[in-house]
Write a structure and sequence with these properties.
two-stranded antiparallel sheet, 91 residues, globular, 55% helix, mainly alpha, 4 helices
Length: 91
């Protein structure tokens, strides 16, 4: 069962949220999606990352999925930590 968009948005970092919202609007409106590189194609021809939820064309998917998972986790944890510290007034 696919992960709902709301789950991706709740956990997305500040860079990914606008991309997710824009891509979701594309999919709902036309069953097409615009990759982060600007390439627009049918959603069934794209690759969706299970970690961040963003859809990629085949060329960008290779670059994205080649990124180290650990680097993604560390970046996400760091942003979440900073957000929590700001909410508590500690930064």
């Amino acid at each position: 069962m696919p992960i709902p968009l709301v789950e991706y948005l709740l956990h997305a970092n500040s860079e990914d949220k606008p991309v997710l919202k824009s891509q979701w609007a594309d999919v709902v409106a036309s069953d097409c999606v615009t990759c982060t590189c600007g390439h627009n194609q049918a959603v069934i021809m794209t690759y969706r990352c299970l970690y961040c939820g963003i859809w990629f064309c085949s060329e960008c998917a290779g670059k994205h999925f080649g990124a180290e998972y650990q680097a993604y986790v560390e970046r996400s944890r760091s942003e979440l930590f900073d957000k929590l510290m700001k909410e508590k007034g500690l930064r």
